[in-house]
Amino acid sequence: MGAAETYEFWVAFLRGLVRRGLHGVRLVISDAHEGLRRALAEILAGTSWQRSRVHVMRNLLQRVPKHAHLTGRERTDVKRRPHHVLPLCNPVRQAGGRTVTRLFCSM
To answer: What letter does residue 67 receive in the DSSP assignment?
Structure first.
């Protein structure tokens, strides 16, 4: 991508795509980079946006405390099958507190 993922970069990038014929975009799935989201709202107005599950999972797993002792298999389950994470809610609640539990259970 660009040297920096700034709002200005994304505006130029998206305008280039539109100039080359991009149209009819209904949904963009990406990370939650604020510059990208602002540029999407401006250049592809009306397009829906959704945060990438990969990015959600990465951020979520970074917040799980080390003392939660998730096994490698449990971490893999969270990444590959996010709809199967509910069984992990209780151990994470006990070890990690309410915020992490809410993140896990909201998936």
So the answer is: G
- Give me 34's structure tokens: 């604020």
What's the whole-model pTM score?
A: 0.59
| Residue-level pLDDT, tens digit, the chain, 107 residues | 556 789 999 999 999 999 999 999 999 998 888 999 999 999 999 999 988 877 777 777 776 666 666 667 766 666 666 555 545 555 554 555 554 555 555 44
Q: Position 79: which residue type?
A: K
Give residue 52's Cα distance to chain centre: 4
Alpha-carbon span 101 to 71, nearest angstrom: 17
Please give the Cα distance from 79 to 61 (Å, whole number). Answer: 9
51: helix, strand or coil: strand
CA distance 60 to 100: 7
